[in-house]
Automatic annotation (TrEMBL):
<dbReference type="InterPro" id="IPR003593">
    <property type="entry name" value="AAA+_ATPase"/>
</dbReference>
<protein>
    <submittedName>
        <fullName>ABC transporter ATP-binding protein</fullName>
    </submittedName>
</protein>
<comment type="similarity">
    <text>Belongs to the ABC transporter superfamily.</text>
</comment>
<dbReference type="Pfam" id="PF00005">
    <property type="entry name" value="ABC_tran"/>
</dbReference>
<feature type="compositionally biased region" description="Low complexity">
    <location>
        <begin position="318"/>
        <end position="329"/>
    </location>
</feature>
<dbReference type="Pfam" id="PF08352">
    <property type="entry name" value="oligo_HPY"/>
</dbReference>
<dbReference type="InterPro" id="IPR013563">
    <property type="entry name" value="Oligopep_ABC_C"/>
</dbReference>
<keyword id="KW-0067">ATP-binding</keyword>
<dbReference type="InterPro" id="IPR050319">
    <property type="entry name" value="ABC_transp_ATP-bind"/>
</dbReference>
<dbReference type="InterPro" id="IPR027417">
    <property type="entry name" value="P-loop_NTPase"/>
</dbReference>
<feature type="domain" description="ABC transporter">
    <location>
        <begin position="5"/>
        <end position="248"/>
    </location>
</feature>
<keyword id="KW-0813">Transport</keyword>
<dbReference type="GO" id="GO:0005524">
    <property type="term" value="F:ATP binding"/>
</dbReference>
<keyword id="KW-0547">Nucleotide-binding</keyword>
<dbReference type="InterPro" id="IPR003439">
    <property type="entry name" value="ABC_transporter-like_ATP-bd"/>
</dbReference>
<dbReference type="InterPro" id="IPR017871">
    <property type="entry name" value="ABC_transporter-like_CS"/>
</dbReference>
Length: 330
């Protein structure tokens, strides 16, 4: 069936004082109906840019964005409006997306009204139902966002996003601004709602435990590009790309077979600037396994025999991959 989100060679370049920032630089990614795709990578890797382009909050400068098969890449805001009910973004910090002058009831009801789905008594009943679904009480409808906790505010932005039953939810770090003590309950809520309603979800995060819990498939970004893509269990069991290996080695997730945690791979240096990505493999300046070829030749993101995707010169088509935790002697 048609994917709910289909990004093809998505680009988002913009001009800054130092030149052209390549925030997203050729990202190809799909989210199937009812599928949760995790997008992970360091901050500055372009994850949020991809999420914002996917819901047309940022304008792509190249490539295409399709929602439910419809090309929305260059659609005007006006023609986009009726389609808006199909896709929503939940932000990291709910306070920035909730109008402080509106009551919770008005905030949750607004999309219903804008899309002509319900008004008056019907809208009020629907709001009460949505509030219950996100674990809030009917009385919360009369409060203002500032009277609520961070966790409650995030529940409200989820209720608002889901009020019109979107086919796609883009969730950008939906729990990272919350107290650690409430992060798990908001993640559980998202997981429950996703299972019940079956919306497709692009889940953007740097929280590897969260993505392992929620996502069916994971795409790993580095400097504006996807470097590896695989089903969640396969990626965690056997990361192929040296960057993915380093990323996972920083998280205390024991190997499912040996129950040992991975040897920590500490990357040297900072993430290079997206103003001037390194030539060849973008990761070569920090890769413990880099060889001469990596400095000049761009590794294509290619499909392995198993169907997984990876962009590294040293990974063979049969999936044989070197271990970045044990680099060869120079
Ligand atoms: Fe490292 Fe080279 Fe593979 Fe890039 S292509 S990840 S630099 S080994
Ligand atoms: Mg971000």
């Amino acid at each position: 069936s048609t994917p709910v989100l289909q990004l093809d060679s998505l680009e988002r370049h913009f001009t800054a004082s130092g030149g052209t920032v390549r925030a997203a630089d050729g990202v190809t990614l799909t989210v199937g109906r009812g599928e949760v795709v995790g997008l992970v990578g360091e901050s500055g890797s372009g994850k949020s840019t991809v999420g914002r382009c996917a819901v047309r909050l940022d304008e792509p400068t190249g490539g295409t964005v399709r929602i439910n098969g419809t090309d929305v890449t260059t659609m005007s805001r006006r023609s986009l409006r009726p389609l808006r009910k199909d896709f929503h973004l939940v932000f990291q910090d709910p306070s920035s997306s909730l109008d402080p002058r509106m009551t919770v009831g008005q905030i949750v009801a607004e999309p219903l009204r804008l899309h002509g789905i319900a008004k008056g008594e019907a809208a009020r009943a629907r709001v009460a139902e949505l509030l219950a679904q996100v674990g809030l009480r009917p009385e919360h409808a009369d409060r203002h966002p500032h009277e609520l906790s961070g966790g409650q505010r995030q529940r409200i932005s989820i209720a608002r996003a889901l009020s019109v039953d979107p086919a796609l939810l883009v969730a950008d770090e939906p729990t990272s601004a919350l107290d650690v003590s409430v992060q798990a309950s908001v993640l559980n809520l998202l997981a429950d709602l996703q299972r019940d309603r079956g919306f497709g979800c692009l889940f953007i995060t740097h929280d590897l435990a969260a993505v392992e819990y929620l996502a069916d498939r994971i795409a790993v970004m580095y400097l504006g590009q996807i470097v590896e893509q695989a089903p969640t269990a396969e990626l965690f069991a056997d990361p192929k790309h040296p960057y993915t290996q380093a990323l996972l080695s920083a998280a205390p997730v024991p190997d499912p077979v040996t129950q040992r945690t991975r040897e920590r791979i500490v990357l040297s240096g900072e993430l290079p600037s997206p103003l001037a990505p390194p030539p060849g493999c973008r990761f070569h300046t920090r890769c413990p396994l880099a060889v001469d070829r990596c400095r000049t030749e761009i590794p294509a993101l290619r499909t392995l025999d198993s169907g997984r995707e990876v962009s590294c010169h040293l990974v063979a088509d049969d999936g044989t991959a070197p271990d970045a935790a044990a680099p060869r002697p120079a």
